[in-house]
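Before we proceed, please read the two lines closing this message. Let me know whether the structure tokens fit the sequence:

…
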Amino acid sequence: MRSVAISVAGLCFLAGCAHFEAKPLSPEPTAAQFEARTLDDPGLRRYIEGNGFSTAKEWPRPSWDLPALTLAAFYYHPDMEVARAKLAGAEAAILTAGARPNPTAAFSPTTNADAGGLSPWTLGFTLDAPIETAGKRGYRIAQARYLANSARLNVAATAWLIRSRVRRSLLELYAANLNQQLLTQQQAVQTQTVEVLEDRWKAGQSSLFEVQFVRVAAAQTTLQLRDAQKQSDQARVRLADAIGAPVDALTDIVFSFSTFDRLPASEDAGAFRREALLNRPDVLGALADYDASQSALQLEIAKQYPDLHLGPGHAWDQGANKYSLGVSLMLPVFNQNQGPIAEAEAHRRQAGAALAALQARVLGEVDAAFAGYRDALRKRNTTDSLWADQQQRMQSMQELFDAGAADRLEWLQTQRELHAGELTQSTALVEAQQALGLLEDAMQRPSDTIGRSGSPPLPPERKPD
């Protein structure tokens, strides 16, 4: 029966042990998986639908806006997996911190060379059961939980960086496409202007200088149009990189730029400062690191008090059973853990200083971004006013042209001025959206969520297919 009990105990021990499972990686299949990523992937569809975004029974989506592209980036981008892996490690550290020390069993057979005809063997068994004192286990768990919270906030900060890159790339694509559209219209007007002036020059009603001047302007517009096409191609590549997919995945994709139709007012910088200081993930993460340093200091202080070790034992000596109960503890004679305590105090001061420095930097970022956004809005308003004046002027010119009071060249000249004003207006709009993006980056939260309390939500986790 004793053998059976020992065997059962051994099997239970082996069943509870973890076993290694090899998961080899190779560059070739990893690269192939990356190249196979598309925006019509069924797993991406389930991910988007599972997080509150309806596909309206249309898949692939007819158009992709910023929220949908952000979810695609959360689904594909490897930075999210790295951040979540770090979070999993930090959460596993909570289990490590809460583990109680295992007892130690010892078997010490002893032989007597001068047994005098008796059995020379004495069989001894001892057990060492450590007991932690002064709440050390609780301090370890608290420290691990604070560090896990910091890792969780790092996931939110990583998600924001990904979202910011997606927005910036989508805005660049929007600006390039808008420039292409406006430059194409301007090129058409300039082509007509060249034709009119060439006809007048041939008729002796215009100089060659005027014709060459307009030709040069038309050639410059052609170069600007080609540059806009280049910027569009580069923005598409950057957008694919921000999503974590190959650029071929964006072929034939229709993008929605409705996000850039809104420019919120900028009346109170205090709301932006409060938002950044109270809810920015890296600030909250630094605060969690400081709390973890507090728990680490408490743990080192608690280590001044020695742990107890209970050592019950049994010995079989010449047929006699002998029992013992030992108690041992470390004597804090030569040191009382002063060094680790001093290190923990220094780490706490360092964490506090890092938090204060981060808050000062955040305030500077918010103030600079707010000032830039406010100036960009003023410029946008000015260009809107000029655009309205140019539209009225074009309307007046159209009436004169229809009535025969203005010739075609004057009408084309007013058209060129109108298109130039529209380019200026679009440039001001893009600059305002860029400034808004910087302001949102300073808060690490969309501007339309200002005033909502609570920590930033974690992005939804990708479940294995």
Residues 1-5 have pLDDT under 50 and may be disordered. Strands lie at 104-107, 110-111, 121-131, 308-317, 320-329. The chain has eleven helices and five strands.
